[in-house]
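input
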Amino acid sequence: MPCTRCFRAKRTCRIAEGAKACQGYKNLKRPCDGLVVTSSRKFVEEKEEQASDTLLGLHEKLARVQAEVAEAAGRLSRIRAIRKKVKERYVETFSRGMQELEEDDVLPTLDAHESGVVSDLQFQGVENNPD
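output
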């Protein structure tokens, strides 16, 4: 990469190996910016590569997290569906059981039996306190 002076003069900038300035700056005894520009470019390219690697890693991590979220959402959906079915079956079974009791006339018999037991307990002096 040519230094500023060589670039403006439209000359080839040649820096000898191990030298700190090109021939034009060496004659003027001034610092050459050709090496600074080159090293700055390399530094920026390295930073860009690091940022690119970091971004790629974050994209991979994001993909993993999104997959985990999708899996958890699926499990939650299945659990909610199962819970809904269980609740529906519970209500249905309870209703069916109560209906069978009413149809079989078991409730009046149970009520009569309960009344008999309560009166026997009261006759024996036991209080009727269900708690």
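quick obs: Residues 5 and 24 are 8 Å apart (CA to CA).
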